[in-house]
């Protein structure tokens, strides 16, 4: 007996009236995968929701890290600015200290040179000259030796003295350009050449002996000049 459209409508009406029949029909007609689809979709929705919450939490953590990083960078920039100000202040203080020390060394060197010259029988003819030549401060005394000859005792003063400083000074006083500069300010040869060191190491003494210049310290004359220049 064929299944007609009328029979189909009768079946639909019966299924609507009997929910348990619909469940049985679904079990017979649908595959297991399709039957499991609602639970799969529910599980997928839960997974997506969990992923969204997890992603949101990660975004909050990243935002916090970025905020902390920005605050740290701001603190670093502020610290760098403070260090720059401190460095500037330190440089200024060091420059002032170097200036004070330089003047002190220079004045002490001039006093020692004067005492040494007078002890050797030289007569000081004029006040001490402090000359700024080539960026260095040189001390100069115009003197007269026991035989009545006039000359200039010139000195380079350093807080710390080593071989290089002595060699550089010895070469500079022998330089024609430097001696021309001395002549232009009225300091003419011959010269008694000295170098003074508040702290002079052993190499300074050896250099003074090698280059023929006198070496002075706060104790007086350590090495006499080899002769006039």
Radius of gyration: 50 Å
Secondary-structure-based class equals alpha/beta
Low-confidence regions: 91-102
How many individual helices? 6
Shape verdict: rod-shaped
Mean of residue pLDDT? 79
Which architecture of the domain at 106-223 per CATH?
Answer: 3-Layer(aba) Sandwich
Topology order in helix (H) and strand (E) letters:
HHHEEEEHHEHEE
Describe the structure in your own words.
The chain is α/β, with parallel strands linked by helices. The chain has a domain at 106-223: Trna Endonuclease, Chain: A, domain 1, CATH 3.40.1350. It has helices at residues 5-17, 19-29, 32-119, 163-173, 176-184, 202-211, and strands at residues 123-124, 129-133, 136-144, 150-161, 191-200, 214-217, 220-223. Strands 1, 2, 3, 4, 5, 6 and 7 form a 7-stranded mixed beta sheet that branches. Helix 1 (5-17) crosses helix 2 (19-29) and helix 4 runs parallel beside helix 6. It is rod-shaped and about 155 Å long.
Structural features:
229 residues, alpha/beta, Trna Endonuclease, Chain: A, domain 1, 7-stranded mixed beta sheet, 6 helices, 62% helix, 20% strand
What can be said about this structure in brief?
This protein is of the alpha/beta class and 229 residues long.
């Amino acid at each position: 007996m064929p299944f007609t459209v009328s029979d189909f409508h009768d079946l639909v009406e019966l299924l609507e009236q009997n929910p348990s029949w619909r469940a049985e029909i679904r079990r017979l007609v649908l595959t297991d995968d399709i039957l499991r689809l609602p639970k799969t979709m529910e599980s997928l929705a839960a997974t997506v929701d969990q992923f969204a919450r997890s992603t949101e939490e990660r975004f909050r953590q990243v935002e916090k890290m970025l905020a902390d990083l920005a605050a740290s960078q701001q603190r670093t920039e502020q610290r760098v600015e403070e260090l720059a100000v401190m460095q500037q202040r330190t440089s200024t203080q060091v420059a002032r200290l170097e200036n004070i020390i330089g003047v002190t060394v220079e004045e002490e060197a001039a006093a020692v040179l004067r005492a040494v010259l007078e002890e050797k029988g030289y007569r000081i003819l004029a006040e001490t000259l402090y000359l700024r030549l080539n960026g260095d401060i040189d001390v100069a005394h115009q003197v007269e030796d026991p035989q009545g000859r006039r000359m200039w005792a010139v000195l380079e003063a350093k807080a710390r003295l080593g071989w290089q400083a002595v060699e550089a000074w010895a070469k500079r006083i022998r330089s024609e350009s430097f001696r021309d500069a001395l002549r232009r300010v009225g300091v003419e040869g011959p010269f008694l050449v000295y170098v003074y060191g508040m702290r002079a190491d052993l190499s300074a003494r050896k250099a003074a002996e090698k280059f023929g210049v006198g070496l002075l310290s706060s104790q007086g004359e350590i090495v006499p000049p080899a002769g006039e220049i």
